Amino acid sequence: MADIVVFGASGGIGQHLVRSLSADHTLLGTYHSADPGSLAEGAAYHALDVTDSGAVNAFVAGVQDQLKRPVLVYTPGVSPDVSTHKIEDADWERALATNLSGAMYVTRAMLPIMREVEWGRIVYLSSVLARRGTPGTVAYSTTKAALGAMARVVSVENATRGITANALALGYYDVGIIKTISEENLQKHVLPQIPQRRLGDPQNITEAVQFLIRSDYLTGATLDINGGMVGV
Ligand SMILES: NC(=O)c1ccc[n+]([C@@H]2O[C@H](COP(=O)([O-])OP(=O)(O)OC[C@H]3O[C@@H](n4cnc5c(N)ncnc54)[C@H](OP(=O)(O)O)[C@@H]3O)[C@@H](O)[C@H]2O)c1
């Protein structure tokens, strides 16, 4: 049993993770604008803007006594849909802050706890778009690729301390951010790119997180869970 903090527990995937992991682990979730209410019995939720490093430090200091076997799952992500030659500073900076700086802030805040107990698991939710060029995704793809680099650096810095850090490069799942894509776009442009011709079931993400919690020799990796998209 581990003590899991899901950052972004109000999102589609975050909600699924809290519900599906709470039977075997203790769960803390954070949300930004949307209080998820009671997702799972025993799970507790805290409002947190991950782009505010002071707030991140205060949150982690407040819950650290509950983290005996700490697991960090980072899900916050935003995806401005705009070409590189048109992107506004505000869109770029919001994506950088939410998708990337927040991941570093929560990692930096939780690592001392993990190093102290000599055990920890860090999982960043990345994307297949970290690996392929897709128009209109400069901020999203760049930040998601950087999460893979973050996992590699954090993994080697902490490899002898019982801590692993990995990223999950997700394809398209039937939950959350995908709901912003129109049905027509989904049928014409998204499904044809997926060799399995279907969206992913979020339970695949839960199973990957469970596997990463159990595994003590898999670290610094980016795992593709996408119905076969890489290289297509
Ligand atoms: N769904 C997919 O098919 C898919 C595919 C590939 C990768 N991913 C990645 O998986 C992750 C989760 O995706 P999702 O579909 O669950 O997305 P989602 O439903 O849009 O949820 C996004 C989450 O990010 C949180 N968030 C946004 N800004 C924040 C901030 N400043 N501080 C704290 N939290 C903030 C949101 O909180 P509030 O709602 O409370 O504001 C929400 O919990 C994302 O990083 C996404 O890029 C998803």
The fraction of residues in strands falls at 15-25%
Largest sheet strand order: 3-2-1-4-5-6-7
The count of strands amounts to 7
Number of helices: 6
Named at the architecture level, the CATH assignment is 3-Layer(aba) Sandwich
The main sheet comes to: 7 strands, parallel
CATH C-level class is: Alpha Beta
Shape: globular
What is the total number of structural domains? 1
Helical residue percent? 25-40%
Feature tags:
232 residues; binds NADP nicotinamide-adenine-dinucleotide phosphate; 39% helix; seven-stranded parallel sheet; Rossmann fold; alpha/beta; globular
Outline of the structure:
With 232 residues, the protein is α/β, with parallel strands linked by helices. The chain has helices at residues 12-21, 53-63, 89-117, 138-157, 183-190, 203-214, and strands spanning 3-7, 26-31, 44-47, 70-74, 120-127, 163-170, 222-225. It has one domain (3-225): Rossmann fold, CATH 3.40.50.720.
